[in-house]
Design a protein that fits this description.
Elements (H helix, E strand, L loop, with lengths): L3 H15 L3 H14 L4 H10 L3 H14 L4 H14 L12 E6 L5 E6 L15 H31 L17 E5 L3 E4 L5 E7 L5 E5 L6 E6 L4 E6 L5 E6 L5 E3 L1 E4 L5 E9 L3
Parallel strand pairs: 3-10, 5-12
Antiparallel strand pairs: 1-2, 3-12, 4-12, 5-8, 6-7, 6-9, 9-11
Helix pairs in contact: 1-2, 1-3, 2-3, 3-4, 4-5
């Protein structure tokens, strides 16, 4: 049972989550769960507000302990478990060789096989003074050619002729800063509609588009700090993209699915996926 002050703080935390202000939501909801650790609603919205996957999983565990039938928490926990699953070793990582063999009681056990012996490298013939002199000459010629190429490129860039050959000063065209969508924070609403709210957390005006790559249609324009909602198809993965006229930034796209009866906050940030 919540007291009036804790209940009001919970409402403030929920409003902060829905507005996309996750930092404020975390601050408020952390105090709520401290005062009311058995409140599943507070733990659920705190799970939507935190960024780290491990903390999100811990909040979801508390939700499911208090409300095992919470379907949204079940789906989010399953998705997190897939993300936190231990990755397979990368190519090139040495793996032990195992062999299965029956024990005395008939059960199978494994033992590690010793690493195979690699063939020894064939002996190399002794080098002569002529070979050493030839290697030094070839290396000197290679260094001279490389220096001439570098000097020639610098002259072309400084004089402006380098544009004809595609040689330009790399400082003139810096790498574009990517702009994209962060992980959505979804909550259940009182109706069956699916609503998605885009929040522009960047410093530039953005255009939000929808549709497959190469065949998108305009959806909305967001000024810095502005947010706007739109209806989404319930439970259907839809691709959205973001663009800006500012040449310092580059837009990206992502497929987002909003469950039926949910409102999902989708922050747009610089350097996001």
């Amino acid at each position: 049972m919540l007291n009036s002050m804790t209940d009001e703080m919970l409402k403030q935390g929920i409003r902060a989550v829905r507005a996309g202000n996750r930092r404020e939501a975390r601050r408020i909801l952390a105090r709520v769960v401290q005062d009311a650790p058995d409140n599943a609603t507070a733990w659920w919205y705190l799970a939507l507000a935190v960024d780290e996957a491990e903390r999100k999983a811990a909040c979801l565990d508390r939700v499911l302990k208090l409300r095992p039938d919470h379907e949204e928490a079940q789906r989010m926990k399953a998705a997190l478990q897939r993300r936190l699953a231990r990755p397979t070793p990368a190519q090139g990582v040495e793996r032990p060789m195992l062999e299965a063999a029956p024990d005395d009681d008939g059960t199978l056990s494994t033992r590690e096989l010793p690493a195979p012996d690699l063939p020894a490298s064939p002996p190399q013939p002794p080098r002569s003074e002529t070979d050493d002199a030839r290697d030094v000459t070839v290396a000197a010629i290679a260094v001279g050619v490389a220096l001439l190429a570098i000097v020639g490129s610098i002259i072309l860039v400084v004089s402006g002729s380098g544009e004809i050959l595609g040689l330009t000063d790399p400082s003139v065209e810096p790498t574009a800063i990517p702009i994209g969508f962060d992980i959505p924070a979804c909550s259940v609403t009182d109706n069956a509609n699916s609503t998605i709210v885009f929040v522009n957390n960047t410093s530039v005006t953005l255009d939000v588009l929808t549709g497959p790559q190469g065949n998108t249609s305009y959806l909305m324009t967001l000024a810095p700090g502005e947010q706007e909602s739109t209806e989404a198809l319930p439970g259907l993965s839809t691709r959205y993209a973001v663009e800006t006229a500012d040449t310092r930034f580059g837009g990206t796209g992502a497929s987002i699915e909003v469950p039926g009866g949910n409102l999902c906050i989708v922050p747009i940030g610089e350097g996001s996926r």
